[in-house]
Specification:
The protein is mainly α. Helices cover 54% and strands 0% of the residues. The chain is built from six helices and no strands. α1 runs parallel beside α4 and α4 packs antiparallel against α5.
Length: 211
Amino acid sequence: MQHRRSLLLGSLLFVGFAVAGIAFALRGTPPAGLGALGGAAWSALAVLVVAIYGLDAWRYRVLGSAAGVALAWPAALEASVANFFFSWLTPGSALGAPAAIFTLHRRGVPLAAAGLIAFGKSATGTLVLLGLAFAALALGLGPAPTDALVVPSPPAPGSWSPRWPCRSRPRACPPCGAGSPGRGPAGGVESGPACTGRPVASPACEPAPTA
């Protein structure tokens, strides 16, 4: 009797929070937009919801059988509801599996077997999703691959200046090609912009790196 009350209370809380979340997500949506889906779409949605939880509870039963535990349908459903509920509430679904372990242990499942069932279900689910993704990729069902290698283009000369360590004395310009070797176009020295980390005024005169 106590387990039935626990399952009923958990299910009511789960449904209540789910309805509240859906209402929050659909706030501002006109009722006419929801009614435009039609009765067939809503019926299919209801069937899919029941099928998802039924399949998840069945997975708990299968893994429980593999672990040597005869798991009843109410216990499997309660573990499924607890797993989904705490997965939605915690970042990264961190407390989903621990909540399922706690629920199964309350139902008389040994703690080691409960942990194996809960984490085994998460691991097998991840493996199935990865397998389906790789199968779809192998069959060409995903985005079309491209042979082009995207290489970022280098910045235009003079569009940026490296942040060389500042020195107190003026810094001589590197060879600019237009003036004397080692001097800038104006035949001067570069002192201010070299210590600011910002682009220099002339792209032909970059600050020289220090050793």
